[in-house]
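Checked the freezer inventory, then went back to the computational side. Two predictions to log before the end of the day. The first one is the construct we discussed on Monday; recording sequence and tokens without edits.
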Amino acid sequence: MSEQQPDRFERGTDGPKVIMAGIDGSASSLRAAAYAAGLARRQNALLALVYVQPVIPAGAALGAPVAGVTEEIAEGIVEEIRTSAERVKDLWQVRWEFHTFKGDAYAGLVQAAEELTADAVVVGASESAGHRFVGSVAVRLVKAGRWPVTVVP
């Protein structure tokens, strides 16, 4: 008979507690956030919205204000989310948090999902044609096989 650890995190036992959506300001990521908000509302789960700020050392080496630009993007996304949440607050009661991580989009989303103990990950489909060859973040998350992943077109 195996002994269970009471403090061990176990996904999916009583429904999802945290549904994470990766957002980057693109139309598909905002649709993913809306879809994740609906899931969170129906499941009474926390909606964790995650923006991964890219770290672009080449731009910094050329003197480009990369950090300032990505901070502005994050602030713009937060403002858009707050405005949308305010519009629907009487219709939907969704608990949500916004988190920013830095680095590569895939690695940042993996780190976020682990730290936030996400039960599910929702991302938008890539809008880049180049991802057919390299592989999109969504495909890499699905292949990781750590969480249920929903890809929203």
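The second is the one RB wanted added to the comparison set:
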Amino acid sequence: MVRKITEASTLENGLKELEKKGVIIPQTLQKAFEKLYAYTNDEKTGIRHSLISDEYVLFFEEAKFTLVACSAFVNYLKLKKVRFRALGK
């Protein structure tokens, strides 16, 4: 969703681009999104790479948490984008 709004190649750059465009996300929340993304991308424990390593077994609760958290993030950004447009920016 960040890429769709900003066309940035990374989440970190995209969050910066959102801010430049006036879509303000609190710094602590930005860091939380970055850490959640880092978790999903971790080759040893992350959900996006869960089949690479036999060291870590991914369970339903991790998968569900990640799905719900990412869904919440997308919905949050959609509302931020709507508010941003409503303000004429």
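For RB: The longest helix spans residues 60-86. Residues 24-86 form one domain. Let me know if you want it refolded.
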